[in-house]
Request: fold
Amino acid sequence: MNILTVLIPISLILGGIGLLFFVFTVRSNQYDDPEGDARRILSDQYDDKPKQ
Amino acid sequence: MTATMRPNISACPACSAAPAAEALAEQAAQKDVRIALSVPGVHCAACINAIEEALAAHPGVQSARVNLTLKRATVEAASEVMPEELVQVLDRIGYEAHELDAGTLSATETDKAGRELLMRLAVAGFASMNVMLLSVSVWSGAADATRDMFHWISAAIALPTIAFSGQPFFRSAWAVLKHGRLNMDVPITLAIVLALVTSLWETSLSGEHAYFDAALALTFFLLAGRYLDHRTRAIARSAAEELAALEVPRAIRVEAGEERQVAVSELAVGDMILVRPGGRMPVDGEIVEGRSEIDRSLLTGETIPVFGGPGQAVSAGEVNLTGPLTIRATAVGEDTSLHRMADLVAIAESGRSRYTSLADSAAKLYAPGVHILSALAFVGWYLYTFDMRTALNIAAAVLIITCPCALGLAVPAVTTAASGRLFRRGMLIKHSTALERLAQVDTVVFDKTGTLTAGTPEVMNLDQVSSRDIGIALALAQGSSHPLSVSLAAAARAAGFESAQVEDITEVPGYGARGCWQGREVRLGRAAWVEAPRLARTAAWLRVGDEAPQAFEFTDRLREGAEAAIAALKDAGKDVYLMSGDSTPAVEDMARRLGIPHWVAEALPADKAARVQAMAHEGRHVLMVGDGLNDTAALAAAHVSISPASALDAARVASDIVLLGGDLSPIADALRTAGSAIRRIRENFRIATLYNVIAVPLAVAGFATPLIAALAMSASSITVSLNALRLR
Reply:
């Protein structure tokens, strides 16, 4: 059962990282154009970084 | 429609605030501006690329970004780039575009409330997943110290999460409790708080049952419903604001011989205002200079343009057709005839607010029922066992099991699906209960001018006119921008006629065009100007020398999908009416063309509203479709109302649904979709009730465990959401 002392913090930390990433995506306007972003992946134009 | 209202200066919000236009021009020369364009036709990945490339290739443009969800393009460009140029750029590659007033739009960009909800939803989701993991191990047999530890960890996660994520419910519940009323949020708050308190108590006594996971899952599902609801409304709001932004409220004021562009709100009585051909009157006034024809169809429904010359009064909202006019403002802002109409709207609207939404009526039944049930369970168990702990535990279990999760999702999930469907078909649901009201409609009333017709004239009798006359008329018409001339020239060219040799063509604003053909004077214009008799329908007259004048008769072109929409509505068994302010022959003609059995002509705005109200008193549910100022009161009086995007701002504000495209055919479709949406909502209520009927006896009898609560809650929420997705 001692393994729990390792597993529980790990699961909480991993979940927390996920939450932080989600907060980041909300802050950086990634949900402003869900339809457009879904289509853009089909674009055959290549660029070094995503257009803003 | 509003294409002509575009301003000549760029549309950055700072511009309208800048005190002086000169200072602004200098300032703007240094920095980039942001131009927003509405591009309704964009729909695929290829469109995005084509539009962004075309815009970026335009000199002066730094970057262009298309937002497909909002069907909008945002361009960062040097200040010398005019929105009109970009509109033309897109026009050349085949996309219709309109400039948007960035000042009006800026409000939608930061949707703070939506973001806040999303954040709370995310935190609740994260916490409920973690607590659920811990709970699963408790359910699968963790005991003694391990179970206690898991419960304490759950409590440590749940308490701060609920404190953060549950705020929307707590606030709303507190707000209604202060007024001594109940809504759905009161049982929700009570369930969450009671679950937390009993669970903490149980945990401190090393008890077996803790409902931390249930409290969190409850918060999560309910927030999901809230968020869906908010999103649907935010999309509608932003699209409605976009329509408002299409009309950039500027006017040209003449000051000491100089023309200056100012905001309409700055105009004062007595100001001289220049209205260019194609422009809309910003205020009520009197013509002091210039001759032109004025299109009053948006105000009165009349299709025939009236002559406008010095001394004549004009009202805000009328469109100047041919020559530039200078008007002296006699009433501005709130006093204009446009605004006076708002009083009528306010009176008519008071009737509509009586409608109670399905969700509200469900809550009215549900909220007291749950409280009574849970209180009874508490009292019953207390009297039976005299054990506070057991009784409280069971009361909490009853509250959680009857949690309105599924009820909270039942309406938003369906309305989101239905609004999304209708939005893709070009309909914008502005009002939250519009769908429910739309489903009840049994009578449809249409306005004629601008609603059933596109507002563009079409020549009717080209085959009865000699080819010589058509040639001359074509020569005279092709230089003019009058809508009748444009239509005549296009029709004649399409029919393969060549223009005759006419020299010295001059346009006489307000009357027509004249020229010289084979040494004889030729005139094309108004009846009085060529000394011809007046006709009941719209006509342009051609007179060659002293010969008898020849009439070109026009009819309003039907809006796309008008015939299909009316046929579909009649097939669906709805009563269709036509109510117009136009003359009797024109309305009768239109009614016959479309096969509308009941029609009313020459109706004043108050008449229309009164008739709609009379129908409502007969117990009918009226859907009013109209675009003009004369329809505004009727739109507000009707049970539901639809207006096309080309309608005046006032009409769009008064209506519940806005048709974004030019096509009318989605109307019949919308009625069908609304009907099936309401069926789904009722089904969802039934599903939620069924779960309660099964689970509540278990809870009251004391057999409910946190496992059963979690299963019932998740299963009902998921079934309800899936059922909403079946909407067709």
